[in-house]
């Protein structure tokens, strides 16, 4: 009888432990690895992300002059891939976002390069200030991809 009770308690322990692990989030989950954009002119796009956004390149395995990779967050990359036949039209709400220390300083940098920007309503040359005080602007890269730039303090 003691052996049956012992086995029952042991089984209950393992079942409870397994259930607790599943509920505590120990299951594997998906994490962002990279974003990829398809561009018409690799060098022009590399110049844009390297100089305007001051992103750091990271090694890419292909070495075929059709790819450039950037580090955009810890463990996250932006893959720029050459070969698009023409730029496409994108919606403002379909964008990636970078935070900077100062939107005003960023606007001064893009203004010096004659790069236009819009606010959240798509109005040219204006800066949005959200209700939480975060400033935002949107720019297009050379292929028309929208990029939000804000000063959010994450």
UniProtKB/TrEMBL annotation:
Name of the protein in its database record: VOC family protein
Span of the signal peptide: 1-22
InterPro entries linked: Glyas_Bleomycin-R_OHBP_Dase, Glyas_Fos-R_dOase_dom, VOC_core
Organism the protein comes from: Sediminibacterium roseum
Coiled-coil ranges per UniProt: none
SUPFAM superfamilies reported in the protein's UniProt record: Glyoxalase/Bleomycin resistance protein/Dihydroxybiphenyl dioxygenase
Keywords from the UniProt entry: Signal
Source taxon at top rank: Bacteria
Residues in VOC domain copies: 31-152
Keyword Signal listed: yes
Gene3D superfamilies for this protein: 2,3-Dihydroxybiphenyl 1,2-Dioxygenase, domain 1
């Amino acid at each position: 009888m003691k052996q049956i009770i012992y086995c029952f308690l042991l089984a209950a322990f393992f079942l409870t432990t397994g259930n607790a692990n599943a509920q505590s989030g120990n299951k594997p989950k998906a994490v962002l690895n990279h974003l990829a954009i398809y561009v018409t002119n690799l060098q022009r796009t590399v110049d844009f992300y390297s100089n305007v956004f001051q992103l750091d390149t990271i090694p890419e395995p292909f070495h075929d002059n059709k790819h450039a990779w950037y580090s955009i967050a810890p463990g996250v990359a932006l893959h720029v891939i050459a070969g698009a036949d023409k730029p496409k039209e994108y919606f403002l709400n379909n964008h990636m976002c970078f935070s900077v220390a100062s939107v005003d300083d960023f606007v001064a940098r893009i203004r010096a390069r004659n790069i236009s920007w819009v606010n959240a309503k798509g109005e040219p040359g204006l800066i949005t200030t959200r209700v939480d005080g975060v400033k935002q602007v949107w720019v297009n890269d050379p292929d028309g991809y929208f990029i939000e730039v804000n000063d959010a303090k994450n």
